[in-house]
Amino acid sequence: MAQNTSMEEFEALLNESFEIDTPSEGSVVKGKVIAIEAGQAIIDVGYKMEGRVDLKEFANPGEAPDIHVGDEVEVYLRNVENARGEAVISREMARREEAWDRLEKAYADEERVEGAIFGRVKGGFTVDLGGAVAFLPGSQVDVRPVRDAGPLMGLKQPFQILKMDRRRGNIVVSRRAILEESRAEQRAEVIANLHEGQAVDGVVKNITEYGAFVDLGGVDGLLHVTDMAWRRVNHPSEILAIGETVKVQVIKINKETHRISLGMKQLQEDPWDAVAVKYALDSVHQGRVTNITDYGAFVELEPGVEGLVHVSEMSWTKKNVHPGKIVSTSQEVEVMVLEIDEAKRRVSLGLKQTMRNPWEVFAETHPEGTEVEGEVKNITEFGLFVGLQGDIDGMVHLSDLTWEGRGEDVIGDYRKGDTVQAKVLEVDTEKERISLSIKALDNDPFADAVGGVKRGSIITVEVTKIEDGGVEVEYEGMKSFIRRSDLSRDRAEQRPERFQVGDKIDVRVTNIDSRTRRLGLSIKAREIAEEKEAVEQYGSSDSGASLGDILGAALKGNDD
Prior knowledge:
One of its GO terms (biological process) is translation. This is 30S ribosomal protein S1. InterPro entries: NA-bd_OB-fold, Ribos_protein_bS1-like, Ribosomal_bS1, Ribosomal_protein_S1-like, S1_domain. The structure is a single chain. This protein is α+β, with helices and mostly antiparallel strands. The chain starts with a helix and ends with a helix. The protein folds into 6 domains: 32-109, CATH 2.40.50; 110-180, CATH 2.40.50.140; 194-267, CATH 2.40.50.140; 271-350, CATH 2.40.50.140; 358-437, CATH 2.40.50.140; 445-538, CATH 2.40.50.140. It is rod-shaped. It has helices at residues 2-21, 91-108, 176-192, 275-278, 358-365, 407-410, 445-449, 523-538, 547-559, and strands spanning 27-37, 40-46, 49-54, 72-79, 88-90, 113-121, 124-128, 133-137, 156-165, 170-174, 199-207, 211-215, 220-224, 245-254, 259-263, 284-293, 296-302, 305-310, 332-341, 346-350, 371-380, 383-388, 392-397, 419-428, 433-437, 458-467, 470-475, 478-483, 504-513, 518-522.
């Protein structure tokens, strides 16, 4: 009986020993390295169980395995026994379980964790956090985009856990958060030691179209392109290079956003302080064209002092052309100072004022009556524009094209490019107008014909045409018209048909119109004048003599 009791106790103790010494699958157990062979470590995990682990599982990314015989290590027991009677164990899984416990605590306490970037994957990198692998997005590597992450690979450094899910095995970390935090602390410290107006040294870190970012020792300031120099700067790269050390002045500090505005020109002498003295009104200076716009050209008088030559002040003759057709960028030009506005820092310049007014020059060299020759530049409904010396135009009005006929009828005989001769009638320098005349080259046939004729003169004309309203006559080649009412003093004789073409008749000149080039003629006026003269010479109607008697006596006297 006692023997049976002893056997039961021994069996119970044996089972209890098995339960205590035999670890359960899926747990982390301690073991001892008893041998290293064929790239594997043989580990005794107790209860006469041994397992094999590849040496690479004992190595950190990029490092050699650090394991020796006799070392005690923790491993993960996956299976108590495999087909070869060995325990299936993993050092990597043990490290992962240990790491997850540690990382979950750090994540809960918002603490930083240490890790090393060891691989590149789509969208980012892989990070070893001491056994657990995390994902580092590309946007979380640095505060600025990183083109080459090579120097960061394998380097142990702190990370911030952004998100983790143990069930799915996902961990997302950020290196940028650590940098921003330390950067913010550093910025606050540097900014606290800066004040507006202070001159400091900095290093150019980046150049953009609108300026450059300068590192002031942990904090960046913006040096805008307009604050680099007093002169016009088209691009910051003209005067700065990345990595260059420059002296700048703190213009403004925004305590809330920690933004710093810097300036370089503020440390230099302002050239505008002496502008009024150096550039007196109406003085002429040499300058360089720096920029051309639709409304004019900017000319640099000296570094930092620019003036605008408005398009209206560029040329005496080219009125409606783009400034780029008159001057070109970087061209050296002579300009005159027209106006200075020191408050607005503006100088108005003139280009044409450095050259003589071509209309004044033309008026001096071509007084009225001078004959000129030029090319027909344009033909309009009111006349011809002729190109003249000095790149200016003169106009021949329709009324100055010909003595005979109408200008509208002869303007069609001219074409663009024709060379014509004309006389200068008038030069108006203020209105910039030159009046020319082609017909003035020849004598006025009307003036020649009526040169000796005066109003009241009796002349002999020849009938050239009979019309209902009167007769057309010719005198010295000049056509005139006698109206029906002027054909006779007697109404019964005011009949055009009583005349024939070729008849010679005496008429009295009643009007000389040089503008219309017409003579006013009248037979009636001649008869009245003759009657008046006869009455004055031979008597009056009051003496009792009849008009027939007086005229008869006058005619008889003429016959004698």
